[in-house]
Description:
Largest sheet: 2 strands, antiparallel
Order of helices and strands: HHEEHHH
Radius of gyration: 21 Å
Strand content: 5-15%
Strand order of the largest sheet: 1-2
Structural class: mainly alpha
Number of domains: 2
Amino acid sequence: xxxxxxxxxxxxxxxxxxxxxxxxxxxxxxxxxxxxxxxxxxxxxxxxxxxxxxxxxxxxxxxxxxxxxxxxxxxxxxxxxxxxxxxxxxxxxxxxxxxxxxxxxxxxxxxxxxxxxxxxxxxxxxxxxxxxxxxxxxxxxxxxxxxxxxxxxxxxxxxxxxxxxxxx
Length: 168
């Protein structure tokens, strides 16, 4: 993605130069701003410990380390699909959490605002708890994170399931 973004930027500036040189009316034009989010549907991401797949979404997968639920807005899957805490943890980097698009390397494009916001909230709470407990995020007690998220109103499933998981 970095190489694509670099080439994309170079192309934008080359195109602006082409317009100034070859298109009447553009002789004195300047390029002032290039949108920072030209690749809003893709972009850089990390290899997570677990990557939610299209099959996970289709089967409404459940994970014991659920932090929120993703509902695909294009198809209806009863109950949605769990987003596991492991999805926020990069494989090779300690002390870092990824949320939103940066946590989605492939598979379903989990980019709906509500889900990205909940993932961001989970990452923020997990980082706070990791600092408080003096542990790396990957060694955080997931139940403590889940209980905190539940108390903040994050949706993680039906009450019976939350009781079974020991969240409530």
